[in-house]
Design goal:
Layout (H helix, E strand, L loop, with lengths): L1 E2 L17 E3 L4 E7 L2 E6 L1
Antiparallel strand pairs: 1-4, 2-3, 3-4
């Protein structure tokens, strides 16, 4: 799932900033800056 700052796009989309672990009722987003882009990995 690709993300643009600060919006995360994907199932149960939420707003987050890079370098944060964001808790979501259905998903845990691990967000890391990669190649100048914020990548949201759904665990």
């Amino acid at each position: 799932v690709f993300a643009g700052t600060p919006d995360i796009y994907g199932p149960g989309a939420i707003e987050a900033q890079s370098s944060l672990i964001v808790k979501h009722p259905k998903y845990d987003y691990s967000i890391e800056e990669l190649g100048g882009h914020d990548i949201a990995l759904i665990k």
